[in-house]
Amino acid sequence: MKTNLTDVQYQVMKFWSPVFEKELRSSLLLGGLVNKDYEGQITKGGDQVTVSQVNAPTGQLLTIGTDADAFSTEKISTSKVNIQITKRAVAAYEFEDTVEILSMIDRGNQDVNDALKYAMGNQINTYLYSLISPSTSAPDHTTASVTDMAASVVSAQRVLAGQAKWPKNKPWYSLLDPQYYGDVMDDTTLASSLYGATDAPMVGGVLGQNRFGFTMFEDNSLTADHGYFFHPDFLHLVMGSVSVKISDLHSQKRFGYIMSVDVLFGAAQGINHSKLCTSVTA
What we know:
This protein has two domains: 5-130 and 237-265, 2-Layer Sandwich (Major capsid protein gp5 fold), CATH 3.30.2400; 142-235 and 272-281, hypothetical protein PF0899 fold (2-Layer Sandwich). It has eight helices and 13 strands.
């Protein structure tokens, strides 16, 4: 019995589509740690969604017996970040025939699935990193000439976070390149449980380490001696549904098939972005 395109599309929808989106979202490292809350709906490129933050009121300090019998109200205000869906992360393979595609799906082979997810996730992470821009004044949130990620360096980032009044409603994170992460493992103060070091849950298949108020992860996509410390609200990421499509090449007067996977997304710097992150470089 000949395998046709309809058979393959059915198999993809049955075995891949339900889990691909979930696996892509969980495999993102930086993308898995930033703020992903938004208001609105993503249906096509160009759509715009909004991230809102309620601003704290000024409040009052009243004195009993003097002015504590009455109080003033304030109009609620919010700060908003509008994010437009301007990016599409896509990965695609070309196959000679449908049997080749179907055999990879039927036998539960994750190689193609994993490769496509990696390619898409890598594009999204690279774009997110391009948006990071720590403050360079009052105070400077960029630290240069750091050859080793020692406890004193991590402690200094914790001081900067405290001085910038990072909210404590969400965990604080750090992403380090393999060289810096290796320094952390070699530093007794950072690596030993005697100094409070503990393991954290996995994100994107990577085990985190809790150090000085940060959950630290190794990100091998970073170049040597690069690290970032941040609050999740420093960046916003919004993603649509993952689309899996298979089509033939007959219209191009060619034999063969293309399988593509893509997702529409948008990202933007959060409110007070520059003060909610720090960077460390050699």
